[in-house]
Design a protein that fits this description.
Shape: globular
Largest sheet: 15 strands, antiparallel
Structural class: alpha+beta
Distance between the termini: 43 Å
Radius of gyration: 25 Å
Length: 589
């Protein structure tokens, strides 16, 4: 199945992907970054999946989310009748559940259920037994229990069932995770859980303060972002998956089930702009706890609880999504130095303060410590926003974001009345010094654009941020030249590439990739700033058309094969969607 053929479920602690065929092909219990029990997404069916679908394989399929929720309804129409599969993950109690209800709509339909549980990323076959509480599957620390009134049987290390559902009948299945040394948790009532789940999401989405032309797209993106939030700590994961490729068959496959400061700061901005201050407060709390300690040890990404050690390794027994190897667990980028995150962190905390979230004395002390570190390290080369593996460079975007860090620090002292005014003159001086250096060394007069790194001839779509962060005004000729250069060289079939990796091999990886959807949204904002609002709106409409039938987007898109690429659903993309729509609709030219 294509990436866009999947739906997304979440209980705001972990997530599942459900295909149009009724198969749960990806599920990690109990957390986003736990080992999976269903890994068919990046392997084969034998690596774990949970299929519920009509026996008639010619059934036509339609699906939708129920109202503004993450309750997925997949309708199968066969020659003999219609059934609806209702999939959801109830807001977390003590143990995580995934609930699947087969509902008869018309006629009578023969249905088959196949449950293949494989713990530890598709490798470990559990011990399965029938007990009074249900069907138990146990291996090592993990246990699952399946509860259903439908009779099941074992067949080739698979739990199967065949049954018929007539109009008005319902067949529920509840799969619950628990620690294997404990007793199975009490059973939940599927119908009560459905009611509670609908209320949870409807109440949450109902507090969205944004209207406008693209209201539904914004709300769906915000629900997706909420679904990618790890509720106990407030951390926000970049995506629900690992190793979905940026090019089919390629090696650009990464684990995104962690909390990137960059992605999360953009998410915080989108949430505050949409009226969700409680989530913004929770994320700010996660951030300040996570980066506490020596500023020199601040990382670009962390685990959902703020874990720092995220060693990257490859799983050899998984074939990869459409044979895109390797499948990676963990992310070595956690050891990289990226200057831009300092600017994003300071900027997000500034916007939180502007939205009414007061900065406490201890919060400000952490920010001051970060700025002191940046004072002596902004001149260092780094791996940049794209987390290159080809060596550190003086990336122009990174320096601009270091400028933004000092700019926000100055603003917080001057406009918010925060203490430590003794830093003000020094931060202003460094801010101006960075600005001068970037204008002198980052702008290539031969190329007539700000380029990827000092001395480079390569264009980079991250530099669309130049006017968006206020580094230079849109009227500046250098800004206009840079946007024109990106439009000329990085616009492919109506969408924007991050950069051309084949030109200088700056990222240290073979092959190329798809167009980058967040950058395409940034380009739309730049078009509006240039007075080309009609073209900006057309760009947004093209991007919205790439969403799957459930309103979900990944990180990249292949305009030739016309399919989504990269991990899914992708927070960075949905944040860019929300931010761009807000930007285009906030005022008319």
């Amino acid at each position: 199945m294509k990436i866009e053929d999947y739906g997304f479920l979440s209980d705001t602690q972990t997530a599942a992907l459900v295909g149009r065929n009724g198969s749960v092909d990806w599920l990690c219990f109990p957390r986003f970054d736990s080992a999976s029990c269903f890994a068919a997404l990046v392997g084969e069916a034998k690596n774990g999946r949970w299929l519920i679908a009509p026996v008639d394989l010619s059934a036509t399929v339609t699906r939708k989310y129920r109202d503004h929720t993450l309750i997925l309804e997949t309708t199968f129409e066969t020659k003999s009748g219609i059934v609806r599969l209702i999939d959801f993950m109830p807001p977390r109690g003590t143990n995580p559940d995934i609930v699947r209800i087969v509902e008869g709509v018309r006629g009578k339909v023969a249905v088959r259920m196949e449950l293949i549980i494989r713990f530890d990323y598709g490798d470990v076959v559990p011990w399965v037994r029938q007990c009074r509480a249900g069907l138990e599957a146990i291996a090592g620390p993990n246990a699952l229990i399946l509860r259903t009134p439908i009779a099941t049987r074992g067949e080739d290390l698979t739990t199967v069932a065949e049954f018929e559902v007539a109009a008005g009948e319902r067949a529920p299945f509840v799969l619950t995770w628990y620690q294997s040394h404990e007793e199975p948790p009490p059973a939940i009532n599927p119908d009560h859980a459905l009611r509670d789940t609908q209320k949870f999401w409807t109440d949450w989405a109902g507090s969205c303060s944004w209207g406008g032309k693209w209201h539904d797209a914004v709300v769906r993106s915000l629900i997706t972002l909420k679904g990618l939030t790890y509720a106990p700590t407030g951390g926000i994961v970049a995506a629900a998956t690992t190793s979905l490729p940026e090019k089919i068959g390629g090696v650009r496959n990464w684990d995104y089930r962690y909390c990137w400061l960059r992605d999360a700061t953009f998410t915080l901005f989108a949430l505050t702009r949409s009226g969700f201050l409680e989530e913004a407060r929770s994320w700010r709390g996660w951030l300040l706890r996570t980066i506490a300690g020596s500023p020199s040890q601040m990382q670009i990404l962390y685990g959902t609880h703020g874990e720092r050690r995220l060693p990257e390794f490859e799983i050899e027994w998984l074939a990869g999504y459409e044979n895109s190897r390797p499948v990676r667990i963990g992310n070595a980028a956690s050891n990289q130095f990226q200057l831009d995150v300092y600017g994003e962190v300071m900027s997000s905390l500034y916007h939180a303060q502007q939205a009414g979230i007061e900065i406490e004395e201890t919060d400000w002390a952490v920010q001051v410590a970060l700025m002191k570190f940046l004072e002596s390290h902004w001149q260092d080369p780094d791996e940049g926003i794209w987390e290159v593996r080809g060596g550190r460079k003086h990336f122009t975007h990174s320096k601009m974001m270091a400028w933004l860090a000092f700019h926000r620090g100055v603003q917080l002292i001057e406009t918010a009345g925060l203490p430590n005014a003794e830093h003000l003159a020094r931060w202003k001086q460094i801010r101006d010094q960075i600005h001068k250096e970037v204008c002198e060394r980052g702008y290539n007069s031969k190329v007539r654009a700000f380029t990827q790194y000092y001395g480079s001839d390569a264009l980079d779509a991250s530099l669309l941020m130049t006017p968006l962060i206020g580094f230079l005004p849109i009227e500046d000729e250098r800004v206009r030249n840079t946007i024109a250069g990106i439009e000329r060289d990085l616009l492919v079939q109506g969408f924007i590439l991050r950069y051309r990796p084949e030109e200088e091999n700056v990222d240290g990886l073979p092959g190329d990739e798809g167009v980058f959807l967040p950058c395409s949204f940034w380009f739309a904002m730049c078009l509006k700033m240039l007075g080309r609002k009609k073209e900006a709106c057309q760009m947004v409409e093209r991007l919205l058309a790439l969403r799957n039938d459930l309103g979900l987007l990944s990180e990249e898109y292949d305009p030739r094969a016309k399919r989504l690429l990269g991990n899914f659903p992708q927070a960075f993309t949905h944040v860019a969607l929300v931010s761009t729509v807000h930007f285009l609709e906030q005022e008319s030219d």
